[in-house]
Amino acid sequence: MLALTENVTQIVNQLAQEVPEVSGIRVAAEPDGQSLSVSPANEAVAGDQVVEQGGATVWLDPVAADALDGMVLDGGVDEDGNIQFALGQQA
């Protein structure tokens, strides 16, 4: 299962506090099947796997859940306020 770093939990929790219609993020496979997208979300889509950690909620579509099994999602906010995510292997 995907794990979240403290950075990501803080980012998702702050996003949920600042934007009332957002309660987490959703990771989904793009139609090309080669890439994933991350977007703010308020609820899961049928079939999504739910990762809850540190008060943050991340929904994964089935393809993303398989691709990210055993991974760690990290993130940060750049100088312009853009959120960036990165993946690594769980130790």
Order of helices and strands: EHEEEEHEE
The appropriate CATH architecture is Sandwich
How many beta-strand elements?
Answer: 7
What share of the residues does DSSP label as strand, in percent?
Answer: 35-45%
Question: How many distinct domains?
Answer: 1
Strand order of the largest sheet: 3-2-5-4
Shape: globular
Give the helix proportion (percent range): 10-25%
Rg value: 12 Å
Task: State the helix count.
Answer: 2
Which CATH class?
Answer: Mainly Beta
Major sheet characteristics: 4 strands, mixed
Textual characterization of the structure:
The chain has 91 residues and is of the alpha/beta class. The chain has one domain (3-89): Hypothetical Protein Aq_1857, Chain: A, CATH 2.60.300.12. The protein has helices at 6-18, 62-67; strands at 3-4, 24-29, 36-41, 49-53, 56-60, 71-77, 83-89. The strands form 2 sheets. The protein has a 4-stranded mixed beta sheet with strand order 3-2-5-4. Strands 1-6-7 form a 3-stranded mixed beta sheet. Strand 4 and strand 5 form a beta hairpin. The longest helix has 13 residues, at 6-18. The radius of gyration is 12 Å and the shape is globular. The relative contact order is 0.27.
Write the layout of secondary structure elements.
Blueprint: E1 3-4, H1 6-18, E2 24-29, E3 36-41, E4 49-53, E5 56-60, H2 62-67, E6 71-77, E7 83-89
Parallel strand pairs: 1-6, 2-5
Antiparallel strand pairs: 2-3, 4-5, 6-7
